[in-house]
Write a structure and sequence with these properties.
The chain is mainly alpha-helical. Helices cover 71% and strands 0% of the residues. The chain has helices at residues 5-16, 20-30, 32-38, 48-67, 77-93, 99-102, 104-109, 113-122, 133-158. The longest helix is centred in the last third of the chain and has 26 residues, at 133-158.
């Protein structure tokens, strides 16, 4: 099932009024594999704000799939690792253009375009928060890998 903009907006509205610390606790309890994935050594170089953005993206993705009742009982780390490896390959093989242009290849194959657009939009610079291209790539690949893991689960339960 495609997650629509309406579902994403509903989740964002819920999170806007929620206790973020509590949401982190609930996420970590529900998805210990994702918690470990987000706390790995490769992400230690992120600033607190960059890390919180990545965590927020993961939380939004999880909540969107929860809202359509498509949640894995347990996340398989192998699926997550395979998704990450594939996403790094796709990004590295993308034409060497600007960050947004590199993402076109992901949209061409995505079954969740609205969530992918949400991830892309979350990485847009604003006046107060500018993210380097290298960090944008890291945040994108990690967010997209989490998305792919939920999609893989949804695909196995809908067949």
């Amino acid at each position: 099932m495609m997650i629509s903009d309406q579902i994403i907006e509903g989740v964002l509205e819920e999170l806007e009024h929620a206790d973020f610390e509590k949401q982190i606790e609930v996420f970590n309890e529900a998805y210990p594999v994702l918690q470990s994935y987000l706390l790995n050594d490769q992400l230690k170089s992120l600033t607190h704000e960059e890390f919180m953005l990545l965590f927020f993206n993961a939380l939004v993705i999880a909540r969107c799939f929860e809202s359509i009742k498509s949640i894995p009982e347990q996340i398989d780390p192998a699926i997550l690792e395979e998704a990450e490896s594939k996403n790094w390959s796709m990004l590295e093989n993308a034409k060497p253009q600007g960050f947004r242009e590199k993402l076109d290849v992901f949209f061409e194959t995505s079954t969740q375009e609205d969530l992918l657009a949400f991830i892309e939009d979350s990485l847009a610079d604003d006046e107060e928060f500018i993210i380097s291209s290298a960090v944008k790539e890291i945040l994108f690949v990690y967010s997209k890998s989490i998305l792919d893991t939920f999609v893989a689960y949804a695909n196995t339960t809908s067949n």
